[in-house]
Amino acid sequence: IKITTDWVKAYNWKVLPVTGPYQLGEVKKGKSVTFERVKDWWGNDERYFQHRFNPDRIELKVLRDQNIAWQHFLRGELDTFPLVMPNWWHDKTRTPEFEQGYIERLWFYNQTPQSPMGLYLNTADPLLRDLNVRLGIQHALNLDKMLTTLLRGDYQRLNSYGSGQGEFTNTELKARPFDPELARQYFAKAGFTKPGPDGTLQNDKGQPLTLSITYTTAEHAQRLTLLREEAKKAGLNLELNLMDASAGFKSMLEKKHQSAWMGWSTSRYPAYWEYFHKVNANKPQTNNIMNINDDAITALVEQYDKEFDFAKKAALSRQIQQRLYELASFVPAYQVPYTREGAWRWIKLPKLPATPKSELLYWPLDGSNSGYSYGGLLWIDEEAKAQTRAAIKAGQPFPPVTLVDTTYQQK
Known about the structure:
The protein has helices at about 5-10, 65-75, 85-90, 95-100, 130-140, 145-150, 180-190, 220-230, 245-255, 275, 295-305, 310-325, 380-395, and strands at about 20-30, 30-35, 55-60, 80, 105-110, 115-120, 155, 195, 200, 210-215, 235-240, 260-265, 330, 335, 340-345, 345-350, 380, 400-405. The longest helix has 18 residues, at about 310-325. The chain contains 13 helices and 18 strands.
């Protein structure tokens, strides 16, 4: 490689050598990325890799709208589709393709680290600087009703900042329950005692108790609308601000949000410095979107990063989560200890379809965000594919298939 003044431009799209089973192939910018199976790959005969990474060619298509992608899937132009969202699993799959057995559904319980999904309160905001306001918000959000109604009881309430990380999770913490009267008591301590014309509490200056929520997933609008209607019982007005994913995340990193409805990706062991250390507070382009500027949690985070003893590090993690609970800047929402997906009947998986740490079922490559290796377990049954195509043309159905695997379900 010769380093020149135009090195970045010259090498930006050159294919690098790989050690994995797939090599980057054709790239259609903005449309698709293709991977080709490496011939005579060194790992073919290794015990751990045998019978994995079976497709000769993988095409990842860029479809920016989920509903458009769904139509591609129903036409057989996509082989698999995620179905974690309850309305997709329960309602969207009521189509001839599923009911006639051409596409199969699989619900697989796993044991993966759970994303800290919830409401992130920007503590630098004038309203949210007051701990009593933050505590009131904790009790003003009826997340349990959202889970049991809109989400069909499929999701589980998250109790702390993430879960599924063993000893690193503080299991003694319990999410604060919906309690409008208790919420009003906290709001009163912050000076919001008088109901306005619409029922929203006000302080002596006439300032209404209003919280703006920035979110980037359109499918979550109904969930947040339910929370907004329930929050009125506590005298809290929620303003919902849907933004494009890129613009919304940029706004969060620049700390322009009042609160954010989102969830970070997670890993086998939690990371805290970028999210909680005070050096990242009130500074743009950092992940401390709650603007936490707290000496106690900062000291714990610094100890955590320097500690190599597993038990001591786990104990520090639990203390960090305890302190975050006391700060009440994060409202835990829900966790999803499973994956659900649909696939055309020619895409096959082993009898035990995945590993305990599998975040996805039909991921053809290796690796994951959590540092576990679980991909490449699927294969394509060409005979079943030809049979299915012929059956569709002939109008011949197959028995509908919905499998639920609870092998690794945690009670």
